[in-house]
Amino acid sequence: MAINCREEEENDLEVPVDSIMASASSEIEEFTELLPEHIEVEKKRKSAGGAPKEKKPKVLPEDDSGVDWQLRLDSRTVQEITVDKLKVYLRSKGLPLGGNKKVLVERIYEDANNAAEKEEFMGDL
Q1: Contact criterion met (CB below 8 Å) for 78 and 109
Q2: For 106, how many CA atoms within 13 A lie in the half-sphere containing its CB?
Q3: Which residues does the chain have with pLDDT short of 70?
Q4: Closest residue by Cα to residue 104 from 117, 92, 95, 113
């Protein structure tokens, strides 16, 4: 029988939202009238230390492969170089290292062409 009585009682954990809203409606209206019509909020990302961190320039490793890249590029024999040495060159230029050997070789030729175009452009100035 105690269970049946408990079901009939009001649930203490339920919040009577309707009655709260009815009693607080005048205060809510007064508060909303005090708010400015339009507020722009700028969100800033906080760093762990509180102060903004300066970005350090990326330092690229030197090419220590021992390959004469200019000779290889001029003679179009880059594809004869091992993948490990191709990746050393790409790493030194800050270029992606992913892909098979053919992709790496193409990336090196593309980089060389971009560098030559840039040099040519800078010479025209």
Answers
A1: yes
A2: 6
A3: 1-11, 38-52, 124-125
A4: 95
